[in-house]
Amino acid sequence: MKKWDMISVALLFYTAIVTPYETAFPDSSFSDAMFVLNRLVDLCFLFDMLLRFFLMYRDEWSNIWIAQPTQIVRHYIKGWFAVDLVSVIPFDLINFFAGSSAVQQLRLMRVLRLLRLMKIIRVIQGSDMFTRWEAKMSMNYATLALTKFAFIALMISHWIACIFRFVVDIEYYVDSSGNVYNWLTMHSMGSTPLSEMPPSTQYISALYWSVMTLTTIGYGDLVPSTLAERALSIACMLLGAGTYAYVVGGVCQILNSMDASTTEFHQTLDTLNEYATQNQLPAELTSRLREYFHSSRALLRDKQNLDLLLTMSPGLRGEVSVFNNKWIADISFFHCNDVLERAQFVTALALVLRPECFPPSEFVIREGELNTKMYLVQRGIATKDKVVYAGGTYFGEDIILHLRQRKIPVRAFSYLHVQVLSKFDLEDIMATGLYPQVHRSIRRQVVKIVFRNQFVHTATRLHKARSSIVDLPSAAAEMISCRRRSSVFQPQVNEEGTGIAAASSAVLADRVVEGVSSSVSGAVAFQDDELAASLVSRLDEVVLRLSRLEKYLLPNVSFDPPPPSRRRESMASRSSSRRGSINGAIIGVGDNNDPWHTSIQLARRTSDVHKPDLNKSGSTKKHRHRTSAV
What we know:
The chain is an alpha+beta fold. It has helices at 2-24, 32-51, 69-78, 81-87, 91-98, 100-106, 108-116, 126-136, 141-171, 183-186, 199-214, 227-257, 260-279, 283-295, 298-310, 314-324, 339-352, 423-431, 436-467, 474-485, 495-525, 529-553, 564-575, 582-587, 595-610; strands at residues 57-58, 65-66, 188-189, 192-193, 354-358, 363-365, 373-379, 382-384, 387-389, 394-395, 410-412, 416-422, 613-614, 620-621. Residues 557-630 are annotated as: Disordered.
């Protein structure tokens, strides 16, 4: 069907150009090549007419394609059938077989030639084909509109030129002396009148008068001579004035709307300049404002894209959102295996994202600011402490946690274009309950962030506690260094060094247990047994490494953790009810006979003995208790 549409458009162009010319200039009609070509065109139009009896059509009221043959035939007969039938009648063959003299005497030829112009009406059918092409092809509508206006102006000029020549044969005015009187006989080129010139010369003269009339120029060197010609001139002047206004106005509108974002940007700059003048802003500030608006010009296009997205149907909106927001696949806690759920979630996110732009050195996130926004970098660079964020990265993912103050600021290193996701918009999306897999991923990420933050916090506290012990004997440091270098170590150190080193390791064990236990509590609270079991297995590894060091520092105390099977059984039996101590449910702290509990209690007592006490001036009260006292 697509190829036949292209053939039909070519035939329509041929009809729109050649048929008026042949009608107005009959002497050029019967060359052999033109005669054969006209017959081929008639056959193609006949085939197209028969084909339309079998083509479905769309009902205007129900917007449904009708495929029943009887309804198709009825619809076509009531529509374009009469026009198509007239357009395939070979009027030039009637003239050929009837004889020129007989037809001219009866003036039948003039009527038949006029009916041949009915073929031009088929050009209107080409609008349906162009509509189908617009849906299939990507085209610049500004360029298409300019081409359309140029085509309209040329076609109208061509048709008026042919009509201006055709009026000569229709009227056939003869003066009292028996001389033919029309614009062809009244004008000449040199000593030869235009009536004796070849058809091509007459056509150029008629086209010259047509363009001159349509453009309202009117040189006056070629004027109508008869009453019919003057009547035609009046009609052409009125038509020309309307056509000229339509074409010129349309072209101006197209030129202004070829880039809507550019037009809006220029209007924004004009408003900014007016605002700066009215408020007497400093020149330096005004210059920075202009630079910002020039750099954030893409925001206007992003807003237009969002408005365009809102006009789409939900299904198409989802497909476009998934294609344009592939960065969501890089965010682990937005992961979803369900294609439909993922498309709906991405669509919901795309509708709440808001574009923003930050100039260089401006804070994107300030210290102490609440975690209410997440930023997705499109272009530019941002820095957070020693971390650099470039295009395709994101920061501020702590919006999935409870409201808290952010401790590390983020600044724009260059002009930074970001998409902003609000915490409250995300909560509204998740509150709908339509995205269970995404909700599960977010819950798991919350537990991971809590575990990471608690572990870092514990390590920081331990580092500060260790660094505050300024009188750590060199023997303890040498002992630890030797143990790291030797695979088999026989402890030969003084008791004081052993006690302080043991206290430090005990503090480490205690703090790690607290951090991991808090994370496991979060996992159970979020009803994620799989993640809780994973955290417990990681706790096994941490405690195992601590026990390897601790068995040298405290040889008389067992620091081995309980078997994993025992902890898993305890977790399985107690996490189902979600009651009781999370420490007791996961790691068995509640059992006083458990060697794990004994070692933890010993570590806590030791850490209490050797825990540094900081006064207001920041100095350290030194403790020199011995391990034997423990």
